[in-house]
Design goal:
3-stranded antiparallel sheet; 5-stranded antiparallel sheet; Phosphorylase Kinase, domain 1; Aminoglycoside 3'-phosphotransferase, Chain: A, domain 2; alpha+beta
C-alpha cells in the first residue's frame, strides 16, 4: 500500500505527497515526516500485533487507540488524523509539530510545565480503565525485580554487587503494595524527556506505546529522573497541585518513592535495551546508588 494511499485513507480524501524523509528523532518504530498538498504529517508504522518489555510496550496499535479515544477528545497532544491497518502493520498519522523542542533542549522551566500537564491528565483519567490498556499488577512489578536479580547473576556482576542488588530488590518487593494502593489512572508509561515536545509553553507528549493503567507516580518518577534536585522538586510540586487541587493523598509519598526504584529496575531487568556492556554497568551503578 503506497504512502499516498495510507494518508488518503487516514484523512478521508486524496493526498499528493511532495516530500518524504526520516524523522530526525529516534523512536522504537520508523517515523517519517511527510509533506503533501494537505499539509505536513508525521507517520509512524509498526507491527499491529506487538509486545516487548515483558508486556511493558504495546506498539503502534496501542498508541493509536490512546490518540483516538483519550488525547483527541481532549484536544491535546499532536493532532490525530487517523490510523490505517494494512498487511499486518498499523500506520499512525499525526500532526507534525514543527518548531518544537524536546524537553532536554526546551526553555528553562519546561520541566515544570510538563509535570503540570501530566498531573492534569492523570486527574482527568482517574478511575478510567480502557480495555485496550494493560493494568499493571503485583506480578508485573515483581517480575522486574526477579529479572534484575537473574540478569545481574548472569552477567557475573560480583558477589558484593549481587548481594546489594538482592537486598534492594527485596525491599522493592515489600514496597510494591504502595504502588497498588495509589489511585490508578491512565499513565504514559515512559514519560521521559525525549518523549515530550514543548512549543510555545505547550506540552506535546509523544510515543504512547507503553500507555497503561497504574499509578501516575510512575510517570512522575520517569519525568524527574536524572534532573537536578531544585528542578525536580519544582516539577513534583507542580504535578501534585495539578493532580490533586484539593490536597495530596497520604499514599502518594510511598508510591512515588517506590515508583522511582521501579523505574530503575524496569530498565535493568530488560536486556532488550542494553545497547552495550557499558549500558548495563551504568544502570547497575544507578540502582546501587538508590
Amino acid at each position: 500500500m503506497a504512502l499516498e494511499e495510507i494518508l488518503s485513507e487516514a484523512l478521508g480524501f486524496p493526498v499528493v505527497v511532495s516530500r518524504d524523509e526520516p524523522n530526525v528523532y529516534w523512536s522504537t518504530f520508523e517515523t517519517r515526516v511527510i509533506e503533501s498538498d494537505a499539509g505536513t504529517f508525521l507517520c509512524k508504522r509498526g507491527p499491529t500485533r506487538y509486545e516487548s518489555g515483558h508486556g511493558h510496550r504495546g506498539g503502534v496499535a496501542r498508541e493509536a487507540e490512546v490518540y483516538r479515544f483519550l488525547l483527541s477528545p481532549l484536544g491535546v497532544g499532536p493532532r490525530f488524523y487517523g490510523s490505517v491497518e494494512h498487511d499486518g502493520e498499523t500506520w499512525l498519522v499525526l500532526e507534525y509539530v514543527a518548531d518544537a523542542f524536546r524537553l532536554p533542549q526546551a526553555p528553562r522551566g519546561s520541566l515544570t510545565v510538563a509535570a503540570r500537564w501530566v498531573g492534569g491528565f492523570h486527574h482527568r483519567y482517574e478511575r478510567t480503565q480502557p480495555a485496550y490498556l494493560p493494568a499493571h499488577d503485583a506480578d508485573y512489578y515483581l517480575g522486574w525485580a526477579r529479572r534484575a536479580r537473574a540478569l545481574a547473576q548472569e552477567r557475573r556482576a560480583g558477589v558484593r554487587v549481587v548481594g546489594k542488588l538482592d537486598r534492594l530488590c527485596s525491599r522493592f518487593e515489600l514496597a510494591v503494595p504502595a504502588l497498588l494502593e495509589a489511585q490508578p489512572t491512565v499513565a504514559h508509561g515512559e514519560y521521559v524527556p525525549k518523549n515530550i515536545l514543548i512549543r510555545g509553553g505547550e506540552t506535546y507528549p509523544v510515543d504512547w506505546e507503553s500507555a497503561m493503567i497504574g499509578p501516575g507516580e510512575v510517570d512522575l518518577a520517569s519525568l524527574v529522573h536524572r534532573w537536578g534536585e531544585r528542578a525536580a522538586d519544582a516539577a513534583v510540586r507542580a504535578y501534585r497541585a495539578a493532580r490533586w487541587p484539593e490536597g495530596v493523598p497520604p499514599e502518594h509519598e510511598a508510591a512515588f518513592a517506590t515508583a522511582q526504584l521501579y523505574w530503575l529496575l524496569r530498565w535493568l531487568g530488560d536486556r532488550e535495551f542494553w545497547t552495550s556492556d557499558a549500558t548495563f554497568v551504568h544502570l547497575l551503578d544507578e540502582v546501587m546508588a538508590a
